Amino acid sequence: MRDFLFHRRGVLAAIAAVAVAAGGASASTEAEAPVDEGLRLIMVEQPGCAYCAAWDDEIAPAYGRTDEGRYAPLARADLRMGPPDGVEYDREVRFTPTFVLVRDGQEIARMEGYVGQDFFWPLYLDMLERNTAFQPDAP
Questions:
Q1: Which site in 44, 80, 121, 131 is 20 to 30 Å from 90, CA atoms measured?
Q2: Phi, then psi, of 10 in degrees rounded to 5
Q3: Count of CB atoms situated within 10 Å of the CB of 116
Q4: What CATH number is attached to the domain comprising 119?
């Protein structure tokens, strides 16, 4: 099952990258993605972070066009500035990038580091499925 998810997300990431490069949207429509209004994914970053730059190049252009991105919109925070107003982390963020999933300002999950686009999507999907009501490919 895990191999299937890695393969599936790798293929979806490649399709999203092609759609973005072509100037189009992904095959998903906004009506397909459920919405949790209080949910956000906070990317904690800092200037000069090579892994943050890689995420920006490989994931950021497609993120908001995916069901996952619409379900948990992206917000950004500078490591040295602390959490955004109204957000509380469970523990100190020490590495960049760190992706903190928050609901109504409270951390519910986190992913430390960026392991490349082939692994980001399946790890992020797992984080969403374990901590929210998100279901991929929801009708």
A1: 121
A2: -60, -45
A3: 12
A4: 3.40.30.10
Spell out, as residue ranges, where the chain has pLDDT lower than 50: 1-9, 11-34
Cα–Cα distance measured from residue 64 to residue 100, given in angstroms and rounded to the nearest whole number? 16
Six-digit token pair at 137? 């490919």
Tokens linked to 64: 């908001």
Strand ordering across the sheet containing 106-112: 74-78, 39-45, 98-103, 106-112
Q: Is residue 92 a part of any domain in this protein?
A: yes
Torsion of CA 83, 87, 90, 94, to 10 degrees: -10
What are 25-48's pLDDT values in tens digits? 333 333 444 455 799 999 999 999
Q: Answer yes or no: is 48 within a domain.
A: yes
What angle do helix axes 2-21 and 117-131 make, rounded to 10 degrees? 120
Q: How many domains does the chain have?
A: 1
